[in-house]
Amino acid sequence: MSNRTFSAEELREVISLFQVFGDIKGVERYGSGHINDTFKVEMSLGGEPVRYVLQRVNDSIFTRPDRVMENIARVTNHLRAKFAGAPDATRRTLTVIPTRNGQPVARGPEGGWWRMYVFIAGARTIDLIENADQARKAARAFAGFQNALADLPAPRLFETIPAFHNTLSRLDQLDVAANEDKMGRKAGVAAELAFVDAHREEAGKIVKMMEAGEIPERITHNDTKINNVMLDDATGEGIAVIDLDTVMPGCALYDFGDMVRTSTANAAEDEKDLSKVYSRKEYFEALVKGYTSEAKFLTEAERDNLAFSGRLITFTIGIRFLADYLAGDTYFRTAYPEHNLVRARTQFKMVQSMEEQKDEYEAIVRANA
Q1: Helix (H) or strand (E) holding 139
Q2: d(CA 254, CA 163)
Q3: pTM of the model
């Protein structure tokens, strides 16, 4: 997300690029995402309120916004066809608003890339998971999303961020950042680098299994935080998966692993007091039950590695935070100089907590296989 402030006049000019009609009543920042600039647009058409989501795509991260939007258009069209006739079909997936010339993304007057979606009414997102039942429902929603995309016709989707969850690739990036030590920070992270070294041997397990064909490539979301599921206001059920920028070819285990990382955490991602950081077993069990109830596509090898995937992805994200800290905080937005280091330490503490409960977590998976 940029630090830039957009004037009301600039935002109105961007909105005029899209096929929306009526009077603009208000535009305000919306959500808590760290990557794109997001706004809620309130309009009135014939006296009836209409709402949209307007986003400025971060093209320093997504260097090909056209490919991102081509993926999203293909995925949402496929999901819309899948859900046609189902209850609340119009709320089951994002609806892309085309530009005046029929494209899914527009170049704004300031040079950025913009897109619009229909606002999904009667549902909400939450940033912090509140109970194990929410974990179960979110896991069901993500599994249902993967199920629905299992038969997406060729061609293969674009990789919007190549090697996004490839732990070996992330280790290489960390090694480069540590060797270059541009900010002179390496001496202060000896314990964290030692933790990484102690886990190198298992870091490539999933990558190597995919290369050997033992685990299949699937279409995955790749950012399965609780706030990327719209929860119905009335039932609490997950009705739509959102934030589709990273939907691309990947591994189902990475999606499940990121759910474990984010949903079982007892503390915030940047909690400084590590005594408060641990992985909650009851939330892990809820995730397993919700995910396996809908993920009918899972192979035996995928099921066998569900518990491991939580440790692996948490470790991988920790590596990314640590690498960014050593490189000078060039990727993740930070609030203070040590922010990324604090995040890395939190992730590594989560890995330790999962390791301490390894036998229990594996038993939970076997019980729900």
Answers
A1: helix 132-149
A2: 12
A3: 0.90
What's the confidence (pLDDT) of residue 2?
58
**CA 349/CA 277 separation, integer angstroms:** 7
- Cα 80–chain centre separation: 21
pLDDT tens, position by position, 247-297: 999 999 999 999 999 999 999 999 999 999 999 999 999 999 999 999 989
**Pairing mode of beta strands 48-57, 23-29:** unpaired
Q: Does residue 249 have a cis bond before it (omega within 30 degrees)?
A: no
Do the beta carbons of residue 167 and residue 206 sit within 8 Å?
yes
User: What secondary structure does DSSP assign to 276-306, as a single string?
Assistant: G--B-HHHHHHHHHHHHHH-TT--HHHHHTH
Distance CA 356, CA 354 (A): 5
Q: Whole-angstrom Cα distance, residue 297 to residue 316?
A: 25
For 61-83, the three-class secondary structure string (H helix, E strand, C coil) is CCCCHHHHHHHHHHHHHHHHHHH
Q: Under a CB-based contact definition with an 8 Å cutoff, are residues 91 and 203 in contact?
A: no
Q: Which of 351, 311, 312, 346 is nearest to 332 (CA)?
A: 346
Q: Give the largest Cα separation in the chain, rounded.
A: 64
Residues 231-253, buried b or exposed e (16+ Cβ, 10 A)? Answer: bbeeeeebbbbbbbbbbbebbbb
Closest CA to 175 of 153, 203, 150, 155: 203
List phi, psi (to 5°) of 84. Answer: -55, 130
